[in-house]
Amino acid sequence: MSSQSKKRYVCIHGHFYQPPRENPWLEDVELQDSAHPFHDWNERITAECYAPNAASRILGREERIVEIVNNYSLISFNFGPTLLSWLERHSPETYRAILEADRQSMARFSGHGSALAQAYNHIIMPLANERDKRTQVRWGVADFEHRFGRRPEGMWLPETAVDTETLEALAGEWILFTVLAPYQARRVRLIGSEKWWSVPGAGIDTRMPYLCRLPSGKAISLFFYDGPVAQKVAFSDLLRKGENLARGMLGGFAAEEVPQLAHIATDGETYGHHHRFGEMALTYCLDYLEKNDLAAITIYGEYLEKHPPTHEVEIAENTSWSCAHGVERWRSDCGCSIGGERGWTQVWRGPLRSALDWLRDRVAPAFEREMASLAGDPWAARDAYIEVALDRSPANVEAFLRRQAGRELTREERIKALRLLEMQRQAMLMYTSCGWFFDEVSGIETTQILAYAARVLQLAEEACGEALEEEFLRRLEAVPSNVAKWGNAARLYAGQVKPTRLDLIRVAAHHAIASVFDGHRPAERVYCYRAENQIFERIPAGRMCLGIGRTRIRSEITGNEGEFTFAVVHFGEHNLNAGVREFQGEEAFAAMGREVRGAFQRSDLPGVIRLMDRHFGSHNYTLWHLFRDDQRKILNQVMEQTLEDIGISFRDIYDKHFALINFLREVGMPLPAPLAAPVQVVLNSRLQTSLDRDDYDPGEFRALVEEVENLEVSLDRPTLAFAAGRRIESLMDRLAASPEDLELLLTIDGLLALLQPLDLRPNLWKAQNMYCAIQRRLRPKMKRAGAEGDAAARRWLESFCRLGRHLQVSVTG
User: Fold this and answer.
1) pLDDT number for residue 343
2) Cβ distance 690 to 706 under 8 Å?
3) More confident residue, 196 or 534
4) How far apart are CA 550 and CA 112, in angstroms?
5) Residues 199-221: pLDDT tens digits?
6) How distant, in Å, are the alpha carbons of 24, 394, 529, 614 from that of 621?
């Protein structure tokens, strides 16, 4: 390394975060159609960004993969705790790669890990009260320690929003540093000097860390990132090529040979989601800088240890990286927006925050009052509640409550304590920053924080006897919407949020309806609830069906439970009626079952409805009341017969008139619409079915491809590419287990070849990863086969190398 490069350091920070999208009553993300073909946006962004950064590519000649790199081990990064929680459940491979990257980085960066902690659920810290600031930091630290197995050195502040009280909260938990935007510095001076000089308008020298002394006597180090370069990475074409990014980073150095740090911070989603292949540009940039001895790659913790601050700084209070007006974007119509509809304003932001502040401040004394007999210190119990959020196993919950109370709690006391603590967790979630970031109060982000507020209201009533919803709605009337349909947030709450509010009987209704369609399920997990059928009877009658049963529903979050009886009658298609009520004894249950069963078996359907009205009163439910994922699943089942009937008709038209269809194509005559539609539907369906079948048949798929080419069919490319990607991954899984299976090699290679003329571009990311792993494992065998192998070994090697070329991987022996 040259003497100059020894003094030049580069650090790139990625802030990886998505707003929590979990239904507050279900604790999971429901189906989001806008993310199609993925289940939801978390899943989609994982596929586009979080997973690719764990296995990013460096390309060589002919644009083939020559190396796969875990970017997280080379950059500074933080992941929002709520996002990591989702990844742990839904993308465990990516989650493990993130944790492993931190371990690898410690070996590379002098014992310092790449990962930083984050204030827990991305609230704007300067706008939080002192108690919430403290809990957010403590939860962020505890979550980090639980996942990464070490204390965090640094912590990311949401939107880099900062004030002195926030820095005190960080220093109070032994956080050594945080990262801010350059215009968040007010003035600086040499340590030991009395003379300050102002650094207005991002005038601070970003190439060094600074010491910030706090009123308490504590101190924290601050890094101010290179704003212009970060802006170009996020919003310009700097990620189009890795060399461009490298040159951008090198442009931050001064000519003098002194230790200096060129560093940027951006949203991590920039690398792959906002900019396709941005993760590859990042990988190439770091590789290029190191291999050409242009700078040393580092992270903040390592640089701080080697080059401690020589200057002090004072911050500009109540500032952030995404609002030119400080933190006004989260409490006023400051003019910052994402450029929505013309004429829209954001005057809703202030009264929305006021309404939530009112709710927070109303439930706080109720929490203290009701929790006083259940914990030695209610707020200390809240700070410690992160232990339960991270591990809701019954044993851990019991041990936690025993420690807080200093005694064994009764069942009713346990439920009450958990409801109170959940109320506080939801009260913090309702301040998640994205609720104010965008242009309209009826957007999904703001609707989400209103859902958290609704959960707070429900828990306050259940645990404290506080009926606050009416007054909260009155305050929401002062929160205007730009959309005439809503008018204000009170109408939005009533129309979009309140109908989704759940209780145990609604969960029982969902379970009862799903059981009728899926058959008897003695016990199952319904999101964060446990459902156990004590009795279940399913009586089919042609396309109709009756289900009668008794079930127990228990919340895994608060522990409250109830027993319910139900009757569900499915008349066919989407016509369904369900009745659910609390269990009222064996005799009442037996009488209901006997009467409803008898009427159904006599085909007295009006009688069935009358009886259900009599036994269940107003507690009637339909398919509308199903949670979204099961609703879609059951509606697909309901439509199956209808679509099959249409498919039979289309297949009949296609098969009967195939000769005519083929002749019309040969003479160049366009197919009439009544013929074109069946051709398109039938061949797209057959292609997808062929790809989805467990016993994939290469010959069948080849024949279908020829048919498609001959008839010049318009393809549903996104759906078919998704199906093709899954089929290739499935075949590659089998190859990983049996890499010497020549027939399997030829099958995968043949499928990739067949996809080319169809212009299907499946996501080959996982398949490439698996191929590279197999190649590393078999490198000795490949060398032997190439040097002295027999004909069979050489044929295997030739096929394996050809598959690599189809997967765009550089094959090395």
Assistant:
1) 86
2) no
3) 196
4) 56
5) 998 899 999 999 999 999 999 99
6) 21, 32, 19, 14
Q: Structure tokens of 721?
A: 């590419």
The two beta strands, 311-315 and 210-213, are parallel
pLDDT of 645 > 60? The answer is: yes
Q: Which two tokens stand for residue 738?
A: 């049996």
Q: Which two tokens stand for residue 464?
A: 């404290």
User: Could you tell me the domains of the chain?
Assistant: 5-16+36-315 (3.20.110.20), 349-500 (no CATH), 504-625 (no CATH), 633-806 (no CATH)
pLDDT band at 229 (very low <50, low <70, confident <90, very high): very high
* Residue 220 near residue 234, CB atoms below 8 Å: no
Q: Whole-angstrom Cα distance, residue 471 to residue 143?
A: 35
Strands (E), 88-227: 115-118, 155-156, 177-180, 185-190, 197-198, 210-213, 219-224
The pLDDT tens digits for 162-175 are 999 999 999 999 99
Tens digit of pLDDT for each residue in 635-644? 888 787 778 8
- Mean pLDDT of the residues in the chain: 93
- Do residues 164 and 215 lie in contact, with contact meaning Cβ atoms separated by under 8 Å? yes
DSSP states of 326-360: SSGGGTS--S-----STT---TTHHHHHHHHHHHH
Q: Please give the C-alpha separations between residue 27 and each of 313, 446, 451, in angstroms, as whole numbers.
A: 42, 18, 12
Token pair 């090395």 is found at: 812
pLDDT (0 to 100) of residue 788:
65
Q: What is the pLDDT of residues 313-345, one digit of tens each?
A: 999 999 999 999 999 999 999 999 988 778 899
The pLDDT tens digits of the residues spanning 173-190 come to 999 999 999 999 999 999
Strand, coil or helix: 235: helix
Measured in residues, the chain has a length of 813
Q: What gap in Å lies between CA 260 and CA 253, rounded to an integer?
A: 7
Cα 795 to Cα 75: distance, rounded to the nearest angstrom: 42
Q: Check if the beta carbon of residue 319 is closer than 8 Å to that of residue 327.
A: yes
What three-state secondary structure class fits 251?
coil
Distance of CA 173 to the CA centre of its chain: 28
Q: How far is CA 269 from CA 249, 399, 488, 758, 774, in A?
A: 19, 39, 33, 31, 29
Q: How many CA atoms lie within 13 A of 344 on its CB side?
A: 21
CB count in 10 Å sphere of residue 70: 18
Residues 404 and 375: beta-carbon distance below 8 Å: yes
pTM above 0.90, yes or no: yes
The secondary structure of residue 714, as a DSSP letter, is P
Q: What letter represents residue 623's amino acid?
A: L
